[in-house]
Design a protein that fits this description.
Pfam families: ABC_tran, OB_MalK. It comes from Synechocystis salina LEGE 00031. This is ABC transporter ATP-binding protein. The chain has 363 residues and is an alpha+beta fold. It folds into 2 domains: 230 residues, P-loop containing nucleotide triphosphate hydrolases (Rossmann fold, 3-Layer(aba) Sandwich), CATH 3.40.50.300; 116 residues, Nucleic acid-binding proteins (OB fold (Dihydrolipoamide Acetyltransferase, E2P)), CATH 2.40.50. The strands form 4 sheets. A 6-stranded mixed β-sheet has the order 6-7-8-3-9-10, with helices on both faces. Helix 2 packs across helix 3 and helix 2 packs parallel to helix 4. It starts with a strand and ends in an 8-residue tail after the last strand. 36% of the residues are buried. It binds adenosine-5'-triphosphate (ATP).
Length: 363
C-alpha cells in the first residue's frame, strides 16, 4: 500500500502541454478517479505515474520514494488498460501468471496467487481458455486478475469498462468498488464518464485542458463546484446556466432572469458589480403540481419545447419568454406536452452563482 503525490508535474509533447502543473496528493488506500473530457490529460497523468511517459517538470512520489527515474517495473504498480492488453496466444492462467514468472516466483506461489485471484473474481472455470474464447466482461476480469496477482501498492486503471455494454458496466463498476474495499489498496482510475467517477471515487480529480479544476468528494463536487466547468460536467442532464442581470428594487438587490426577479444573496452582493451567471440543476426545477416540502419556491414561467418520458421521470426541454433554454427533470405523473405554458417552480435554496467572466463559483 502506498500514497501517491504529483508535485508541480508538467508534461509537454513538443510544444503541447498535456498536463499543466499538476499538484495532487492521493492517500494510502484511497480510490481516486481522474475524470474529464477527451484530451484533458487524464491518461497522460496515469501514464506518467506508471512510468510509461517521462515527466517534463516536477516530481512524482509513490510512498516516500521519488519515482521519476524508476522504470515501470520498479514502481510496484499494476495497470489495467482499456484494451486489456491480454496475450492472445496464452491461456488465462498463463496471462495471470506471466508477471509473477518474470519476478521469479515459485510455481507453488504462482499457482496459489492465480487461483486466489481467480476465485475472488469468479473466473476459476476460465483459467484454461484463451482470450479469444472469452466475452468482453470475462476479458475485463482477467485483465483485473492479472493486476491483482501482483499485489502492487497502487492499482492504475485506464477506462477499464469502456468496452462493456451498459448493463455489464454497472455490474463491473460494483465489482471494482468491492475489490477496492477488499484489497484496501490505493486505486487510481481514469474515466470520461462522470457517473462512473461519482459512484466509484472516494475523491474525484476533474481535469480540463491539462489543468486540474477541482479535487473533492463526489458530494462536494456536486454541491460546491469550484467553477462553471465542474458545475456543468458533474450531473446529468447538465446544470442549466442563466445569464442574470443585477437590478435594485426598493433598495434591495435582485437578480433578473428574463423578467423574473430572484433574490441576490450576500455573497453575490459582496462580489461587487461583476456579471453573474446563475446555475440551476434540472432536478431542482419542479412542476407546480408536485412540489417537494422544504423548498424556497420561485416561479419560472416557460414554454415546453420537448418532453422525453424516461419512466421514472420526464426530461423536459423548455424556454423562458425571452428565449433562454433550460432542461428540467419532472415527476413522471405530470401531463405536459410540447408548446404548453408552465409556471415551473425553482428552489432558491439550490441556486449556484458564478462570476461570469472568471467562471469561478461565488461563495
Ligand atoms: P481520452 O479520454 O481521449 O483518452 P485523455 O484525457 O486521457 O483523453 P490524454 O490521452 O492524456 O487525454 O491526452 C492529452 C493531450 O495530449 C491530447 O491532446 C493528446 O492528443 C496529447 N497527447 C497524448 N499523448 C501524446 C503523444 N505521445 N504525443 C503528442 N501528444 C500527445
Amino acid at each position: 500500500m502506498a500514497s501517491v503525490s504529483f508535485e508541480q508535474v508538467t508534461k509537454q509533447f513538443d510544444d503541447y502541454v498535456a498536463v499543466n502543473n499538476l499538484n495532487l496528493e492521493i492517500a494510502d488506500g484511497e480510490f481516486l478517479v481522474f475524470v474529464g473530457p477527451s484530451g484533458c490529460g487524464k491518461t497522460t497523468s496515469l501514464r506518467l505515474l506508471a512510468g510509461l511517459e517521462t515527466v517534463s517538470q516536477g516530481q512524482i512520489c509513490i510512498g516516500d520514494r521519488r519515482v521519476n527515474e524508476l522504470s515501470p517495473k520498479d514502481r510496484d504498480i499494476a495497470m489495467v488498460f482499456q484494451s486489456y492488453a491480454l496475450y492472445p496466444h496464452m491461456s488465462v492462467y498463463d496471462n495471470m501468471a506471466f508477471s509473477l514468472d518474470l519476478q521469479g516466483k515459485s510455481k507453488d506461489e504462482i499457482k496459489q496467487r492465480v487461483y486466489g485471484a481467480a476465485e475472488q473474481l469468479g473466473i476459476e472455470k476460465l483459467l484454461h481458455r484463451k482470450p479469444k474464447e472469452l466475452s468482453g466482461g470475462q476479458r475485463q476480469r482477467v485483465a483485473v486478475g492479472r493486476a491483482i496477482v501482483r499485489k502492487p501498492s497502487v492499482f492504475l486503471m485506464d477506462e477499464p469498462l469502456s468496452n462493456l455494454d451498459a448493463m455489464l458496466r454497472v455490474q463491473a463498476r460494483k465489482e471494482i468498488s468491492k475489490l477496492h474495499s477488499d484489497l484496501t489498496t490505493t486505486f487510481i482510475y481514469v474515466t470520461h464518464d462522470q457517473v462512473e467517477a461519482m459512484t466509484m471515487g472516494d475523491r474525484i480529480a476533474v481535469m480540463k485542458d491539462g489543468i486540474l479544476q477541482q479535487v473533492d468528494s463526489p458530494a462536494n463536487l456536486y454541491n460546491q463546484p469550484a467553477n462553471l466547468f465542474v458545475a456543468g460536467f458533474i450531473g446529468s442532464p447538465a446544470m442549466n446556466f442563466f445569464q442574470v442581470e443585477r437590478s435594485s428594487q426598493a433598495g434591495e438587490e435582485k437578480l433578473n432572469l428574463d423578467g423574473v426577479a430572484l433574490p441576490s444573496p450576500e455573497t453575490v452582493a459582496k462580489n461587487g458589480d461583476r456579471a453573474v451567471t446563475l446555475g440551476i440543476r434540472p432536478e431542482n426545477i419542479y412542476h407546480p403540481q408536485y412540489l417537494p416540502l422544504e423548498i424556497e419556491p420561485l416561479e419560472l414561467p416557460a414554454t415546453i419545447n420537448l418532453v422525453e418520458m424516461m419512466g421514472n421521470e420526464l426530461i423536459v426541454y423548455a424556454q423562458t419568454a425571452a428565449g433562454t433554454e433550460f432542461v428540467a427533470r419532472i415527476d413522471p405523473r405530470v401531463n405536459i406536452k410540447q408548446k404548453d405554458s408552465v409556471k415551473f417552480v425553482v428552489d432558491a435554496h439550490r441556486f449556484y452563482y458564478f462570476d461570469r467572466e472568471m467562471e469561478t463559483a461565488i461563495t
